[in-house]
């Protein structure tokens, strides 16, 4: 896996890189001392994994993740502070390692990463059946409720950590899938990755407005039995692709 180390302390970066030499599956492809350095590096190099400090000058680690416009890599937080642990897992972090980092604790985190990789490989193998069309019907179970819904009725897919929330009619069930794995199977002429958290059904776009920093804001129409009305931001980078796709 290709990793980037983000930490404002040079000695901490060097020590982590030294420890990572014990794990041949991890290749450090870059390092940054703050969010402003890290964000363009992440977007250009598209790493699989971030080792990310939280307290840094300028944007902190959480703000760095929020600033990423497209897919966010897997994240292991490395910090000297324990009070951010709960918030870290709200960002779907794989692990939260307290400094000073030792080799056994790092090995535990790497094992988690490898388990995630194997799980994703199995999911990819199971989902390599080909593209889903708007006419395909899918079975959705959320708790005690079940639906057999035509895919074309789903106006929005919303990432919720390891789950995806489906928005159709007035329902919002969640399924245990990643947004990336769904994107690979959806018809790209109908479903568009608006940002790192949302895929929208282009047939449900009601209105498009200019938004901050060159992005766009789309309003979605209601389904057959309501309610719709979601407002979804298309990131600056994705707005360029969207305009080409829609000939705007």
From TrEMBL:
Keywords: DNA-binding, Phosphoprotein. The keyword Phosphoprotein applies. It comes from Arcticibacterium luteifluviistationis. This is DNA-binding response regulator. Residues 140-248 form the HTH LytTR-type domain. Gene3D superfamilies: 3.40.50.2300, LytTr DNA-binding domain. Residues 2-114 form the Response regulatory domain. SMART domains: LytTR (SM00850), REC (SM00448). The modification 4-aspartylphosphate is found at residue 53.
């Amino acid at each position: 896996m290709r990793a980037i180390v983000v930490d404002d302390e040079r000695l901490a970066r060097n020590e982590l890189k030294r420890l990572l030499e014990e794990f041949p599956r991890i290749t450090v492809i870059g390092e940054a001392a703050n969010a402003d350095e890290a964000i363009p590096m992440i977007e250009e190099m598209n790493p699989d994994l971030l080792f990310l400090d939280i307290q840094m000058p300028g944007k902190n680690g959480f703000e760095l993740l929020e600033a990423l416009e497209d897919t966010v890599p897997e994240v292991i937080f490395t910090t000297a502070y324990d009070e951010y642990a709960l918030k870290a897992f709200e960002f779907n972090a794989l692990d939260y390692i307290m400094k000073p980092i030792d080799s056994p604790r790092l090995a535990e985190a790497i094992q988690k990463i490898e388990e995630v990789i194997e799980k994703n490989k199995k999911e990819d193998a199971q989902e390599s059946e080909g593209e889903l069309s708007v006419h395909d019907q899918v079975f959705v179970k959320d708790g005690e409720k079940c639906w057999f819904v035509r895919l074309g009725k789903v106006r929005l897919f919303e990432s919720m950590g390891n789950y995806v929330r489906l928005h159709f009619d007035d329902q919002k069930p969640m399924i245990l899938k990643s947004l990336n794995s769904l994107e690979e199977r959806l018809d790209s002429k109908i479903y568009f990755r608006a940002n790192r958290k949302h895929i929208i059904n282009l047939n449900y776009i009601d209105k498009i407005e200019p938004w901050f920093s060159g992005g766009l804001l789309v309003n979605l129409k209601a389904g057959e039995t309501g309610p719709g009305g979601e407002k979804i931001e298309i990131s600056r980078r994705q707005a360029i692709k969207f305009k080409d796709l829609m000939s705007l």
